[in-house]
Amino acid sequence: MGFEMALTALAESGLSRASVLAPLHVLSYSALLGAELYQTFIMTKVCYESLPRSAFTTVQKRLFPIYFRGQAAFLLLTAVTVPPHGPLTLQSGMDSWLPFAVAGVTALLNLLIYGPRTRQIMVDRIHQGLIYLLVKSRASANFEVVSFSNRDLERREGRKRGSPAQPTDDMMRLNREFYRNHAMSIHLNLISISAMIW
């Protein structure tokens, strides 16, 4: 209701709704699509290739909640500013509202379900690796402080072939859960991007 009142006040000032909504729509759509493409295809790849695994995990668990919230907010702003009549314009036909509905559902699934699940499993995997290293250290009667390294965790997770360390059943279960939830999150994000390009 406040949005309609603001548009009415702007219309009374001599500006048409379309002249106000069009630039806002272009800016919000550009921010939405730009953020989606940058985060998905540039930022994640550069971080994965450049950072040690522990730093990559820390960055991702902090960055993706912000990204998913921003994605949902920009999607809403983009839908509200569709010219010439704002959200009423989306009622003109299915081809108008369907991309927003698809992108909205996928963004909300990532924001509320798959993003948090993936983040929690990522943390659980690290803890499982740390528990293994601590038990391994105590079993060898070596009570030194064990430093956590990417190599040990990768060996623990069974990531490197020919590695003598085999993953435990708990780690294999966490890996399966992580891959399933992470794949779902990736696919939902790609569907959201595709809907916005459509």
Question: What report would you give on this structure?
Answer:
- The chain has 198 residues and is an all-alpha fold.
- The chain has one domain.
- Helices cover 79% and strands 0% of the residues.
- The chain contains six helices and no strands.
- It has helices at residues 2-12, 17-50, 53-80, 94-139, 150-157, 169-197.
- The longest helix is centred in the middle third of the chain and has 46 residues, at 94-139.
How much beta, percentage-wise? under 5%
What does the overall shape look like?
Answer: elongated
Low confidence ranges: 143-149
CA(first)-CA(last) distance: 29 Å
Summarize the structure.
With 198 residues, the chain is mainly α. It has helices at 2-12, 17-50, 53-80, 94-139, 150-157, 169-197.
Outline the fold blueprint:
Elements: H1 2-12, H2 17-50, H3 53-80, H4 94-139, H5 150-157, H6 169-197
List keywords for this structure.
198 residues, mainly alpha, 6 helices, 79% helix, 0% strand, elongated
